[in-house]
Design brief:
By secondary structure, this protein is an alpha/beta fold. The chain has 13 helices and 17 strands. The chain has helices at about 5-10, 60-75, 95-105, 125-130, 145-150, 165-185, 205-215, 235, 245-255, 300-320, 380-385, 400-405, 420-435; strands at about 25, 35, 80-85, 110-115, 135-140, 155-160, 160-165, 190-195, 220-225, 260, 275, 280, 335, 355-360, 365-370, 390-395, 410-415. The protein is globular. The termini are far apart.
Length: about 450
Amino acid sequence: MDPAIREKIKDHPCFSREAHFYFARMHLAVAPACNIQCNYCNRKYDCANESRPGVASHRLTPDQALRRAMAVANEVPQLSVVGIAGPGDACYDWRKTKATLIPIAREIPDVKLCISTNGLALPEHVDELVDMNVGHVTITINMVDPKIGTKIYPWIFYDGRRYNGIDASRILHERQMLGLEMLAKRGILIKVNSVMIPGVNDEHLIDVNKWVKDRGAFMHNVMPLISEPTHGTFYGMNDQRCPTPSELIALRDRLEGDTKVMRHCRQCRADAVGLLSDDRANEFKISQLPAEATNDSGKRHAYRKLIERERRAQTLEARGAATPVSGPSEELLLIAVTTKGGGRVNEHFGHAQELQIFSVCQKGIGLIGHLKIDPEATFNSIINALEGLDLLICSQIGNDPTNKLASRGVRATGAYGGSYIEQAIDAHYSAVLHDDASAPRLETHFD
């Protein structure tokens, strides 16, 4: 990777899989107005326990956003990115976006700035984004064929008037491509988000990937459609199904190439705070913030120095996992890992809020997704959700879940607790290939 790009992404949790283990982001919900309607979106619905784009419990003024950003920056040393992801569109609600980013850049200069946008109003603000030192932009692009766009977007509002049907999709497409090209020419790093909608644009996203790659996108993030009827969206009310996990993984695999494919996305809320796997937004409600705050960067700088040392150690210890694993087998394993950050196996199975899912074969190791664990889910439902995996690696696990997983064909081990994830997976896979008797045994204890 180009060293300049590596420097840009090394502490951005959305643009780097490695960074998301260590660094936190913050979304400021200051931009409620939107200039398009998507069939998968209803911004009026909000559940505090739900992670979904376009959702925010409270809209902030730019002044409130600055207070919140400074409070989070002082209390969350992992914070490296402050962005605006709606709950409408950051470029359409530009006055509020600009009034938020300028003082944050001045008061907290060590954090990166980014925005998310649908791209319709993006071209007219590229120069200002460069002037404000916004280095990362995410554009949601679901189609490059306006005919397909008519199935996703009922209308857009552009240049003072409302457009419907094919005209709306054609204008949106042209503006998205123009904005993407302008950002790439100005050196801003671009991630493209696409919502996978079965029977609508799932196959078409192959073409979308080619278009955005050719125009300078750094990363493509294909997200599954969320269309619960309770959300009140057009798709939800009309029984549009969501993609299955296997369909999503298969499509991401097909897109893997010159453009990086994001596999660690959490489809974050517009008011999210913290690590991607640990939203702490409820700890920073506006009513609980100090009336005034000053920037104290000491904790953040100390944390970043610590992480630099941690990363160097991880590189040295896990270097072998980045190379093909030698052996006679073509076997591919699916492995779930419990982690609470730092790229290590450091979470008890019973305390895990999510699982990282990896694939491993002789070609190497890759993250293929994550599985959230509903805090209200039953024990048996969690066990059932792991069926189809080959192995669960965690810091600790009890006999009962170990036995129940074994009955469904999933082995479990706590033998690699504290190890780096890739190192643990590599060690296990090498043991499988070579039938290494000295490797940790995955014992099953029956009552």
